[in-house]
Description:
The structure holds two protein chains of two kinds.
Chain A: H1 2-24, H2 31-56, H3 64-79, H4 95-120, H5 124-143, H6 153-160, E1 162-163, E2 166-167, H7 168-186, H8 188-198, H9 200-205, H10 210-236, H11 247-257, H12 270-289, H13 294-319
Antiparallel strand pairs in A: 1-2
Helix pairs in contact in A: 1-12, 2-7, 2-8, 2-10, 2-11, 2-12, 3-4, 3-5, 3-10, 3-11, 4-5, 4-10, 6-10, 7-8, 8-10, 11-12, 11-13
Chain B: E1 5-16, E2 19-30, E3 34-38, H1 45-52, E4 60-65, E5 68-70, H2 75-81, E6 83-86, H3 98-102, H4 117-131, H5 146-159, E7 164-168, H6 176-191, E8 195-199, H7 203-209, E9 212-217, E10 220-226, H8 232-240, E11 258-267, E12 270-278, E13 282-286, H9 293-301, E14 306-313, E15 316-318, H10 323-328, E16 331-334, H11 338-341, H12 349-354, E17 362-363, E18 366-367, H13 369-383, H14 399-412, E19 417-421, H15 429-444, E20 448-452, H16 456-462, E21 465-470, E22 473-479, H17 485-492
Parallel strand pairs in B: 3-8, 3-9, 6-7, 7-8, 13-20, 13-21, 16-19, 19-20
Antiparallel strand pairs in B: 1-2, 1-4, 4-5, 9-10, 11-12, 11-14, 14-15, 17-18, 21-22
Helix pairs in contact in B: 8-17, 13-14
Amino acid sequence: MRAVISQYGIFLIFGLMVIVASFLSPAFLTTTNIVNVIRQMSIIGLIALGVTGVIVSGGIDLSSGSVVGAACVVAASLAQIPDRAFYPAIAGSPVVVAILAGCGVGALAGLINGLLVAKTGIPPFIATLGMYTAARGAAMLYTTGRPLSHLSDGYNVIGQGAFLSVPVPILILIVMAFVTHILYSRTKFGKYIYAIGGNEQAARVSGINVGRYKILIYTYAGMLSGLAGLVVSSRIGSGQPGLGVGYELDGIAAAVIGGTSLSAGGIGTIPGTIVGALIIGVLNNTLDLVNVSAYWQQIIKGGIIVGAVVLDQRKNRGDR
Amino acid sequence: MSGEFVLRMQGISKRFPGVHALDQVQLSVRKGTVHALMGENGAGKSTLMKCLIGIYAPDSGTIEFNGQQVSIANTHHALSMGISMIHQELSPIPHMTVAENIFLGREPLTWYGLVDMRELNRRTQELLGRLGIAVAPEKKMAELSIANTQLVEIAKAISYESSLIVMDEPTSAITEAEVANLHNIIRSLRNRGVSIIYITHKMDEVFNICDEVTVLRDGRYVGTSAIQALSHDLLIQKMVGRELTDMFHKEETPVGEPILYVRNYSGKRFRDVTFQVRRGEIFGLAGLMGAGRTELLETIFGVHPRTSGELYLHGKKVEIRRPSDSIRHGFALLTEDRKLTGLYMNATVRDNISIANLLRYLRGPFVRFRKVAADCERMRQALRIKTPSLQQKVRNLSGGNQQKVLLSRWLLTEPEILILDEPTRGIDVGAKAEIYRLMVDLARSGKAIIMISSELPEVLGMCDRIMVMHEGDKVGELVRGDATQERILQMATGLKLTTANA
């Protein structure tokens, strides 16, 4: 019984939260509200998918929020309506090009993170802290600090559209969560990031090219941050260099609440991370519905993050 | 035994800062044989093997594998050539399954590119079944016992189908029945033409399954011979070999009344140990790595909890729960690994010496730095610490002087009982001699000294009495006149005393 609770504890807590929320506010369990909650968490969810892999490999990624800003301004500059564009020469490109560019900018930032971690051996905290600052600066430089509005209708579908009355951001999250889950749990790549996080030296003597897989996981995480940048800029119809501030911490929080271990590598799952993101989403939503002030919300969220890690450490200590 | 060599390592040298770990070492292993690699702790066995499988690059020397000269860049390279190794000191990946651990880096894939878990588990089951190891492939490594973890590591090394397998102390954690099973596996591997380098401290295993033996000592090659040409005693002699030098300025000091009496102490990795130490005495603890010596002394000091036993100081029972208790009772502990548990490498000599004693230098909330400086200066002169100033960072000192800094720290607490765990590890000969002289001075001043050392000449040269441990048990006690390297080694390897001097 105790094993079940520790294994599925986070899912039980989530279930409990939903029950409590629906008692506290009759508005909670309505379709509109639930769709709303999931749509709001989809951006953090996308970031958390990549961050989970990075943390599992024994690293950390602090650059996600800044990469959101950098990716969205590049994508937006391509998606602007040509006659009101900041870069007229490239504006009006097909949506696919904008999407590829946004993801590409994210992947490039991640690649640099990965190269720094794998090749120079500096701590991931420092490498990605550098990118946190540099990517934001690059975003500001690219638009001279201005927002890029007047985006094409095709681009705005990414954040505002719906398919079979399911908002597109939710669809993107579902697809990416599924793909990432398979990637982490069923492919060689996935096995190796768990192995590297669990015992890097053992992975090395088993003949795994540790550096290559570190570079890959940071690149993948960067690509997902770029995707999150597309969604958020399309949602508000404007690519702004200041978008995404603080998202990296929300992404880390979702992963950690979902059971990814910051203290010991090699532990964490995508279902856990999605539930972690949902917990943050439901918490924000419920506190909104019952009119708790935004300031209190932050305090409560802080407490939950710390509480989740305390539980996690107890659990992992029990293993030994 | 065929004459064909699967491996020839020649003229291998490897230097680390301050240590010549390997000096012109050679090792030649014939095809289809089990080759024992023997030597005391620190003789260079592990370093040589790490050069073989590409963890270290040797500074000089050549490696021929299957008749071709090779340069092994990394373990992946070694594995792909057909050299695998059971890594004794490497723990597995705890949160992955047995199957995932064994086939890490070689996962079978389905036609659509995902890892084929069913095939992975089937292959693991087949491998473990063939080797007679009863462990479920789906079990997480963290849930296995130490013995089963070791068996899985063995299975992993064998699963590479290598032509040369290095086994570094493969039987340190497993039972006798499992050892017998492993030896059967090794024999069948040998019959299929696989060669094995077998590193162990257990004499009976060497005589049981090995064909040839190469002995290393102090990073140098001593010799290779067929097992038939050796006896237990001859082999031990080759391992020990060296003459006692006059490094040990041991003086007979009057031994006083008993200070410490440890009775029926048990804890993690040692059981039911009883001994007594007297004032003015240097009491040695000999044994192999993993014999439980460090754990015993750290438990006495209060670092780990004991599971049973009593401790008497001057005939009075005392209760030690944590290091602060033992420090108050006059104990001092010089740990085995200076960097890990002793010194603050980036702090100054002065801060390192005074950190355990700051309470004595307080006036109100302030530290009386002048008094601190005076005491540290006194220590520097007494122990002849070579440093340009007390403000020098400890990082910049040589190993021997670092050890003296640590010793100064504990001497400032004015201990009655000094516990020294490998006090001369990794320091040069001159510094060793000075540490020895200090130990004699301290004993003469009435302190009791307990020393762990894996270097037998040091134990023989310095100690008044020697207690020998084997796998957590006290095997016996020898007094200075009776102790020889051969006897200690025999006791420490758990060999039943068959020879006449029993």
